[in-house]
Amino acid sequence: MWVTVETPLPTGRMRVGVTDQGVAAAAYTPQGAAGLPAGPLISEASGDRRAAAVVGRFADYFTGRRHELELPLDWRLTSGAQQSVLRTLQQTVGFGRTITYGELAERSGAFEAADPEQRALAARTVGSIMGSNPISLLVPCHRVVAADGIGGFGGGETGLAVKRWLLTLEGALAPTLDWAGPS
């Protein structure tokens, strides 16, 4: 089932796909969710206890009352190196922390990177994996940054605004005077 979650993010609502195993998909816009496979996530939730849990946890996170969403994850839309890197990120980089693309590549053990050229390729591959993360926010790809700055985020300038907003909420970036997050 799909759950629509209201957010204070620059992209607005999120769409969250929930299966009997857990959250399988989360996209910052309905358009982002449209590219995900159909199947068990087709019907819209109304009154479902899983939907209520998703909405409640997201609301608590976005108001700063919760640091982790702590919802079960359904990893079926991931595999291989992608799943290894995403699981490593989800399990080892907590709220308010960041990690570089290269550090995550090394920590995940998914790549053999003996020389500098291979390490650079592994870091770029991790960047691509972050861009294909089907479980955004729950697997916190916003916490993965470049060695020399914030790095990229899907969706161009709006995507970067989402990344900055989330990193500011989590305390990894200092708020600017115009930041409209929870007080």
Notes on the protein architecture:
The chain is of the alpha+beta class. The chain has 2 domains: 2-62; 80-169, Orthogonal Bundle (Arc Repressor Mutant, subunit A), CATH 1.10.10. The protein is built from 6 helices and 5 strands. The chain has helices spanning 30-34, 49-62, 80-92, 101-108, 116-131, 156-169, and strands spanning 2-5, 14-18, 23-27, 99-100, 144-145. It has a 3-stranded antiparallel beta sheet. The protein is globular.
Key features?
183 residues, alpha+beta, Arc Repressor Mutant, subunit A, 3-stranded antiparallel sheet, two-stranded parallel sheet, 6 helices, globular
Distance between the termini: 33 Å
Give helix and strand order, one letter per element, not per position: EEEHHHEHHEH
Number of strands: 5
So how many helices? 6
Number of domains: 2
Corresponding CATH superfamily of the largest domain: Winged helix-like DNA-binding domain superfamily/Winged helix DNA-binding domain
Helix content: 25-40%
Kindly name the structural category: alpha+beta
**Largest sheet, strands/sense/barrel:** 3 strands, antiparallel
**Regarding CATH, which class of the largest domain?**
Mainly Alpha
Q: What shape does the CA trace take?
A: globular
Adjacency order of strands in the biggest sheet: 1-2-3
- What is the name of the CATH topology of the largest domain? Arc Repressor Mutant, subunit A
